[in-house]
Amino acid sequence: MEFALSGEQQELAATVRSLLAKRADPRVETYDESLWQTLCEQIGVAALGIPAEYGGAGFSLFESLVALEEVGRSLAPAPLLSSLVTSEALIAGADEDAKHRLLPRIATGEVAAFADASDAVNVLDGDLATLLVVATDDGLFEVDPEACERTWTPSMDQTVRLASVRVDTGSATRIAADGTAALDRARLVGAVGTAALAVGCASRALDMTVSNSQERVQFGRPIGSFQALKHRMADMLVELEMARSASWAASYAVSAHADNAEQLAHVAKAYCSDALAHIAGETVQLHGGIAITWEHDAQLVFKRAHALGQLYGAAHEHRALVAL
Questions:
Q1: What does residue 142 show for φ and ψ, rounded to 5 degrees?
Q2: Closest alpha carbon to 169 in 130, 127, 121, 120
Q3: 181-319, superfamily in CATH?
Q4: Is 165 a residue whose pLDDT tops 70?
Q5: Is the pLDDT of residue 264 over 70?
Q6: Which single residue of 2, 49, 272, 314 has CA 20 to 30 Å from 66?
């Protein structure tokens, strides 16, 4: 099946891209709170996939992932994926009272995080969240972030913010007797969300590489005119477009709760992670020595590729789950 963005979806992507191009700074310490509020208030990125009855914009998960790809392109840190995973987990598994209480808070831009109590070591934005949802063997809980121990976990890419979260559910609010549905949805959305971020990052990497090849001159001519480099950049483009196709297919399937959603999510996460790793490596090599300096964005692409390759499961783990 061939996938293409609708006119409205293209306009959404262009609007998010334009704002991020003007305002995004990939070197901020955690994330730009002012930029995040602008994204939420003017574009509604956190509200896109939340139903209108819970204070959202009433679109679908797919639109949220379209916006997320543009966030990946910007290289800037933003709590969109963690809030998206949390909202989808609540929609899938929380009781109605919790949905009506918590989803409007996420829709307006409050940073949310979702944690699996059995593996609460690398919780995305876990130390920044003001709304924390935890799945345990005893159910799904709303936890006061100030009442639990949260520790930032240093990582290669510090813009992908991870934290260790220790939770005592004794004082938490149970919002579902069984957390399985929420946990399954969180894992699925996390995988396709990370794939979307990877595609955006890869797109940025290719644009940077092509631009550099047109500006950098050796032997009296732009290096982009050398046939060997043209072939390498063409291969990068092929990988990017295949990754985008895999990402969109999985995003649509997960958004529509299709029967093959889980399989497509595994394929997308595996392929997009590997594609970004290769494209990032080529970006560094084709830029030359400047790519490993702190001042150039190529090193940010390289770090992001490693971080996204591990987030919500490594490529080999997802490949092992694909039915052959």
A1: -95, 125
A2: 120
A3: Butyryl-CoA Dehydrogenase, subunit A, domain 3 (1.20.140.10)
A4: yes
A5: yes
A6: 314
pTM of the predicted protein model: 0.95
Report the alpha-carbon distance of residue 130 to residue 135 in Å, rounded.
Answer: 17
What integer best gives the mean pLDDT of the chain? 94
113 contacts 105 by C-beta, under 8 angstroms: no
Sign for the pseudo-dihedral over CA of 109, 255, 119, 175: positive
Residue type, 3: F
Rounded distance between C-alpha atoms, residue 14 and residue 61, angstroms = 18
Residue 226 has a CB neighbour count (10 Å cut-off) of 14
d(CA 188, CA 12): 23
Look up residue 285 and give its amino acid: Q
Q: What pLDDT band is residue 182 in, cutting at 50, 70 and 90?
A: very high
pLDDT of residue 1: 53
Closest to 206 (Cα-Cα) out of 272, 269, 284, 271: 284
**Antiparallel, parallel or unpaired: β 221-222 and 162-166:** unpaired
Percent of the chain with pLDDT over 90: 82
Residue with tokens 């794939």: 195
pLDDT in tens, 192-234: 999 999 999 999 999 999 999 988 888 888 888 888 999 999 9
> For position 132, what pLDDT does the model report?
97
Please state, in angstroms and rounded to a whole number, the distance separating the CA atoms of residues 182 and 21: 34
238, amino acid identity: V
Q: What is the CA radius of gyration of the chain?
A: 20
- The separation between CA 82 and the C-alpha centre of its own chain, rounded to angstroms, equals 8
Residue type, 43: I
User: What are the residues facing 132 on neighbouring strands?
Assistant: 113, 143
How far out from the chain centre does Cα 184 lie? 17
Cα–Cα distance measured from residue 85 to residue 188, given in angstroms and rounded to the nearest whole number: 9
Residue 38 contacts residue 19 (beta carbons within 8 Å): yes
* Contact assessment for residue 76 and residue 35, using Cβ atoms and an 8 Å cutoff: yes
Look at residue 289 in the predicted model and tell me its pLDDT.
85
Report the relative pairing of strands 139-143 and 217-218 from DSSP bridges. Answer: unpaired
